[in-house]
Amino acid sequence: MRSLPTALRRAVRAEFSDPRCAYCQSRERLLGLPLEADHIVPTAAGRRTVFSNLCLCCRSCNGFKWRQTHARDPQTGRRVRLFQPRSQRWSRHFTWSTDGIRIVGVTATGRATVAALRMNNELIVALRELWAALRLHPMKEQ
Ligand SMILES: [Zn+2]
């Protein structure tokens, strides 16, 4: 978020009283690291730095997403657009495994996004297990 104008950075953060990653739903206060502003469609792909193209995102999702806008659905092999937090509902594309530890993609977009952003990497899964044991996870959609 360093390169964003202050007013825009504040506007993106002000949406949430308990900020969480728009992709993996990790809560900032449980991660212990500030969430970052993600360009949903990267500026390299032609989109501007405007509110409607920004969301809050954890460092892990942001790092794995990088400049990607599309990825392969591991079930069909088709290349599909990644999840768009501003225009799509999380619960339409993802759900939690029955133990609440893993994110399951329920659409092609969901499956491709889980794979591309490695939303079930071993580090976040280990953290989710601790959060679930403390009854801090999973949270309902905001
Ligand atoms: Zn995340």
Question: What do you see in this structure?
Answer:
With 142 residues, the protein is of the alpha+beta class. The chain has one domain (6-133). 31% of the residues lie in helices and 14% in strands. It has helices at residues 6-13, 28-31, 59-65, 90-93, 108-116, 122-133, and strands spanning 36-39, 54-57, 70-72, 79-81, 94-96, 103-105. The strands form three sheets. A two-stranded antiparallel sheet has the order 1-2. The chain has a two-stranded antiparallel sheet with strand order 3-4. Strands 5-6 form a two-stranded antiparallel ribbon. A hairpin with a 6-residue loop joins β3 (70-72) and β4. The longest helix has 12 residues, at 122-133. The protein is globular, with a radius of gyration of 15 Å. 28% of the residues are buried. The model has no long low-confidence stretch (mean pLDDT 90). Zinc ion is lined by residues 21, 23-24, 26, 57-58, 60-61.
Tags for this model:
single chain, 142 residues, alpha+beta, two-stranded antiparallel ribbon, two-stranded antiparallel sheet, globular, binds zinc ion
